[in-house]
Amino acid sequence: MSIHQFSFYSNFLKTQATGIVILPEYKVDGLVRIPKPTDRLKVLWLLHGLEDSNQSFIQNSAIGRYANDNQIAIVLPNMVRSFYTDMVRGPKYWSFLISEFKNRLQFFYPLSTKASENYVAGVSIGWLWCT
Hints:
It is built from four helices and seven strands. It starts with a strand and ends with a helix. The protein is globular. Helix content is 26%, strand content 30%. By secondary structure, the chain is α/β, with parallel strands linked by helices. It has a five-stranded mixed β-sheet with strand order 1-2-6-5-7. The chain has a two-stranded antiparallel ribbon with strand order 3-4.
């Protein structure tokens, strides 16, 4: 697996958006296979809880192994204590997550754009937005 930390200016948040993308590696005869530029990965968008950050998944789980075993990219946005909502007088976190964030990462990384190959999961407050 490879772990990528990213940062880009968000038009919705009016500040830098940060997060982590974990990409699986597929080995053939002990060597990492380099995918074709047209290969797209299934994606798990994993949302952290209110008192955690995206780092919690890396520190407290075997998430990299899961990415490799299932050949799936895992995206961990850092949404701070936003409740994943658009604030009346503040950043538009929900709009950012469902519009700008997903589109930007599908541009930056080899992530599938098919709805059937995108999954959302979360813990704590992150879980509430998975339905």
